[in-house]
Structure prediction request, 277 residues.
Amino acid sequence: MNAGAGHSLRRPSGYLDTLERVLMKRFWVGILLLLVSSVASMAGPQVGAAWDWQLSERVQVSPSASIFDTDPDNTNTRAIQRLNARGVYTICYVSVGTLENYRDDLRAFPRAVVGRTYGDWPDERFLDIRQLDLLLPLMQARFQRCKEMGFAAIEPDNMDVYDNESGFRLSRRDGVRYIKALADMAHGMGLGIGQKNVPEITAQLVGVMDFVITEDCFADGWCGDVSAYIRAGKPVLAAEYTDTGVDWGAACAFARANGYSMILKDRDLNAGMETCP
Prediction:
């Protein structure tokens, strides 16, 4: 017998203990990295961060975006979790001022809170935002779905219902009351929430919202009305639309000078996007 043959598989003393320590170390490093990426996505969006916004059915996330806003009906939990693992701050679209007739919870809304059809959007009808006892539980269920999918924050659309022909006698005060109630609810659920347009009530909302999303603020001349968010260390996520004829070069110059995160999108909010150079 070869004297050395019996020793070929022998491990140095303490080898198994060392291997176990190495494997455990790798395991906990992996867990730590996962937690760090998760915390990063939940910590809140940063001023000037690159973002993307898609409400179309074929979602294709820009690899450069660290903030991504989409409709929960156009994605799934696995996709959102993958974005979270990359450190992307994920925002969930929820219409809080209208009822869309294609949502699964349509029948949960009592007729008493449903008003007139929303102009050029025949699939939507305004909501009576004064009736908090009826609306807040319905919105909480929507927010909960976003949370369970892994979203970090809420985009509450159609906050300007009070400024439209809703079929209800709504005031700006009603709007502020409703929006603040939604903000309290979102934060209580561990979710961020942003202001959507309504620049006229920025002063009342900047202290309770985590970011603001604007549409055509440069083309329509009101970007400065939400600058309080930048001063508060909160991002302005600005979208300009291709159909307005906006001076994109001037818009980008303004965005760079003021710390706004600005993108140029088709009004269908599909995957196509232009960012500032």
User: Anything to note?
Assistant: Confidence is low (pLDDT under 50) at residues 1-11, 29-42. The longest helix spans residues 15-42. Helices lie at 15-42, 77-85, 132-149, 172-188, 202-205, 228-231, 248-258.
